[in-house]
Amino acid sequence: MRLLKGLTVLLAIAGTAALVLASQATARPFTVIAAISPSMNFAYVRIEGVVVDYPSLAPEQDYLSFRVRDASGELRVSAYRSTVSALLDAGRLPMPGDRATLEGTLRVRDDEPSLTLNMAEALSLRAGEAQTIDLAALDALPLGGRATVAGQVRRVRTAGESLRIMTLRQGDTEADVLIPLSLRAVFGPPPEISAGDWLTVTGGVGEYRGRRQVMPASANALTITHGNPQLTAQRLDIRPIGALNRDLIGHWVATQGQIVRIREMNSGALLEIEDAAGDQTTIAAFGAWLTWPFSQTITLGDRIMAQGALIDYKGKLEIQPQLPIDLIWLQDD
Q1: Is residue 163 one of the residues assigned to a domain?
Q2: Regions of the chain short of the pLDDT cut 70
């Protein structure tokens, strides 16, 4: 009888263990974000989506949050203490453009779902494939997609202590590239970048106030060529002056020629240039002229290259440079 009871207990334990192993081996079905309802508060679910922004990491590194989006919606994911430590130790912080599969406990407050990641093993990440595109095509990509873009750095600024923002230009289009200064331990040392440098960057596609942004996952995702006049002249699409026409008004253009007239004023200067074909145009260099290092040494007969927006001023076409880097003195070798 005792033997029979013992066998019964062993069989019960074995059956329970088998059920546990089977449940662990069977993948939990995915929950669509839009299908989450208040009745699912505290439910344990499995979500799949893309990371759409940089994670927020507390200075004490005991709290982490990030946003995940699927085809139906978006939710915020949070992790605490030991889970955050394990992710940091493994170098597995979710970054923009990552494809994330995760499991955790739902919280639904005021119809706004969020998910708590209970352990690091419940998060799986893989980088999405990056498309090499022009800046103008960035708006066509979905949030969380990954892209490789290139352009000239026009401006570098910081947003508090957490972000460095670089504005790239390629032709008529500008877009911002972000560097997360607060995630140095994962991102790596932020590179030194200045206006005029040329940058190629791969990162996740985000959005701020309706404008697409590119968010690289590491410093290694940026290739920087420090700007110089010769390089800039090589990379711009330089048009003959005669090719500048009214169809290009409002577009970003570049041309070059010999200075035949300089008219200085308090706000800058008007430069008349002429190319080898004898065609002339005006470079309306206002703010850019005031800080251009060669404004006091350049003279008639010198050759310059200029880029800027083509405008119509009283029936006459002019090029308006924005920055000193838009004026290049083409000195003889």
Answers
A1: yes
A2: 1-27, 332-333
